[in-house]
Specification:
Elements lengths: L1 H37 L18 H4 L3 H9 L1 H5 L4 H9 L12 H12 L5 H60 L12 H11 L1 H25 L16 H7 L4 H4 L14 H8 L13 H8 L1 E2 L4 E2 L22 H7 L4 H5 L16 H10 L8 H12 L19 H4 L2
Antiparallel strand pairs: 1-2
Helix pairs in contact: 1-6, 12-13
Bound molecules: heme C (HEC) (6 copies).
Length: about 425
């Protein structure tokens, strides 16, 4: 009897799993695919964003095959001359819905999920809040550790004051007690702390010698660090006026560095992109995964653009990006020389920018840093007539030994005038 029950429940459980597990899986995938691909333009409700709300979409597209074809490549589908789709396209001001490399099953899963109005909206909202919360605590970590340090110092100062106060209270209590008892204490010869210290140190000469040596070297080291640190801002990571993330753009979305920093291959400076470059995408993408509309709307504010009417006002003001890297005026540095001629990757000098949510100065940017690389890095002379000539001369040089490499140093990369005006 008992066993029979057990078996029945086992079979029932398995049946339930078989029937319900796949649908559960699909609906989760649907939500995920939607958030990853569609959420920037569509809402899983009847509300309009860039494109129409997708709740009840199956009523508008009775033919499932057409619907799938549309989502996979709307521009191709429009060419079939489908009347409804073309009318919709006109209606939405010919906004292009991008093509998606999704399988039929994946498209069906998104449509299933959006058609029924998505999940209840509440959990999504709390998830977003949790996300932003996480980010802001991160950036506060530094400030927290600083104030923690200050509190520790405060406690130490209080303790010292307390100990000295207690000490003097003890002394006056003792004299009081002695006076009461009528004991007249022979006044001890009173030694000033300095005299005490002199006496003690005359007895302990070795300890004093070691301690003074330590003290002097500590002071020297502080001074040295201070001097070497002047003007070195490695790790500098200022907060920017818009929470623009390289991790999101260059990392996750694989946007090439030169798409935005278009001057870097051609000129001395790598420019910071203007807000118009942002609009190539953000005319459509009005919501971000972490900050919703808050940060992206700052781009619109800078351009005096109204995302609802899509009209530009005439009161734009540039975004005040905070400069991270900054060489002194007396140094000449040229990006195109390094990136285009020298074929050096951005990451070699700037570190893993594509995984930084906030840009940080990765290299020290000191003279020693430039020089070290010029000493060690080989010049890419292939295909450059001028350098190939120089390379030949270098090989023919009487000082040339087998194994010597044609480094930047050999083309004059250590000459003061190359880097200093
Ligand atoms: C860059 C913005 C954008 C993205 C991303 C986007 N769409 Fe669209 N979608 C549109 C626009 C705009 C329209 C209106 C037609 C047009 O202009 O092409 C539209 C129309 C549609 C329609 C027809 C709506 C109707 O009322 O008949 C469906 C279905 C649809 N999109 C599904 C999706 C799905 C699914 C995804 C994600 C896999 C997606 N879209 C991603 C912009 C987008
Ligand atoms: C979508 C546009 C965009 C892309 C793509 C992009 N950047 Fe940026 N970059 C910016 C903006 C905007 C700033 C200024 C705000 C900031 O510092 O975050 C910036 C700042 C920087 C800075 C700091 C500049 C300074 O003030 O010293 C460096 C270095 C940098 N980017 C390198 C890169 C590298 C390397 C890549 C490719 C892996 C890249 N960027 C891709 C837009 C972009
Ligand atoms: C080539 C396309 C492209 C360009 C150019 C571009 N972005 Fe983006 N941006 C994106 C994409 C894609 C997202 C992520 C949208 C998503 O995942 O929902 C995004 C998201 C954002 C977010 C939202 C961050 C969040 O987590 O909420 C901000 C802010 C942003 N971009 C700022 C900028 C700025 C400022 C510029 C110009 C310097 C810029 N973007 C240029 C494609 C672009
Ligand atoms: C050889 C090292 C090196 C390489 C390689 C390099 N950078 Fe830089 N980058 C620097 C230095 C040094 C500065 C500071 C320049 C200054 O203050 O004048 C800088 C500054 C910048 C700036 C701030 C604007 C400016 O020009 O001052 C941006 C943006 C930038 N780099 C982007 C890039 C990108 C994108 C790449 C790759 C295509 C790249 N860098 C490759 C060393 C390098
Ligand atoms: C990651 C290695 C690297 C770093 C770091 C680096 N350089 Fe260079 N630099 C090179 C290479 C490689 C070349 C040779 C490019 C070529 O083929 O012309 C070069 C060439 C130069 C030249 C031209 C030299 C000539 O004789 O034509 C100057 C000037 C220069 N760098 C300045 C700097 C300054 C200033 C810094 C530091 C702020 C710096 N470089 C940091 C690798 C580096
Ligand atoms: C490869 C490039 C490069 C070469 C070659 C070079 N310098 Fe520099 N120099 C720099 C950079 C970069 C700085 C700025 C360092 C900083 O801000 O910390 C600098 C700074 C200086 C300073 C200011 C002190 C300081 O540390 O800020 C002096 C002085 C100086 N260089 C002298 C020279 C002399 C003399 C030579 C020739 C023997 C020379 N430099 C060759 C890149 C170079």
């Amino acid at each position: 009897m008992h066993q029979f029950n057990f078996r029945i429940s086992l079979v029932l459980t398995m049946l339930i799993m078989v029937f319900f597990a796949p649908t559960e899986g699909f609906s989760q995938d649907g939500a995920k695919i939607f958030k990853g691909n569609c959420a920037s333009c569509h809402k899983p409700s009847t509300q309009k964003l860039i494109g129409p709300g997708l709740q009840g979409i199956r009523d508008r597209w009775p033919d499932e095959a057409k619907l799938i074809a549309w989502v996979k490549n709307s521009q191709e589908f429009l060419k079939t001359g489908d009347a409804y789709a073309n009318k919709l396209y006109e209606q939405y001001g010919k906004s292009i819905m991008p093509a998606f490399a999704l399988s039929d099953e994946e498209v069906i899963a998104v449509i299933d999920w959006a058609n029924k109005g998505g999940d209840a909206p509440a959990p999504a909202a709390t998830a977003d809040q949790a996300n932003t919360g996480g980010v802001s605590t991160d950036s506060n970590a530094q400030a927290d550790s600083d104030s923690y340090f200050l509190v520790l110092i405060g406690i130490a100062v209080l303790l010292i004051i307390l100990i000295s106060v207690l000490g003097s209270v003890k002394r006056s209590l003792e004299t009081l007690v002695n006076e009461k008892k009528g004991i007249i204490v022979e006044p001890k010869p009173v030694l000033s702390p300095l005299q005490k210290f002199k006496y003690w140190s005359s007895q302990n000469k070795k300890i004093v010698a070691i301690a003074s040596l330590l003290l002097v070297s500590w002071v020297l080291k502080l001074g040295w660090d201070g001097l070497m640190g002047v003007g070195v801002y490695q790790g500098y990571q200022p907060e920017q006026p818009i929470k623009f993330s390289h991790e999101l753009h260059a990392g996750q979305n694989q946007i090439a560095c030169v798409y935005c920093h278009s001057g870097v291959e051609k000129s001395k400076h790598a420019n910071i992109p203007s807000a118009n470059v942002c609009m190539n995408c953000h005319a459509y993408i009005q919501q971000g995964p972490n900050y919703g509309t808050e940060e992206i709307s700052k781009i619109y504010a800078a351009l005096d653009y109204n995302p609802e009417t899509r009209v530009y006002g005439n009161n734009p003001k540039p975004i005040q990006w905070v400069r991270v890297h900054n060489l002194p005026d007396h140094v000449y540095f040229n990006h195109s020389q390094h990136v285009t001629v020298g074929k050096i990757e951005c990451a070699q000098c700037h570190g893993p920018i594509d995984s930084m949510a906030v840009v940080e100065q990765y290299s020290p940017l000191t003279m020693g840093w430039c020089i070290n690389c010029h000493r060690e890095t080989e010049v890419k002379f292939e295909g450059n007539d001028y350098y190939e000539d120089l390379h030949k001369k270098f090989m023919e040089d009487s000082d040339y030994k087998k194994g010597d490499v044609f480094t930047v140093e050999k083309i004059g990369g250590l000459e003061c005038s190359k880097c200093h005006y």
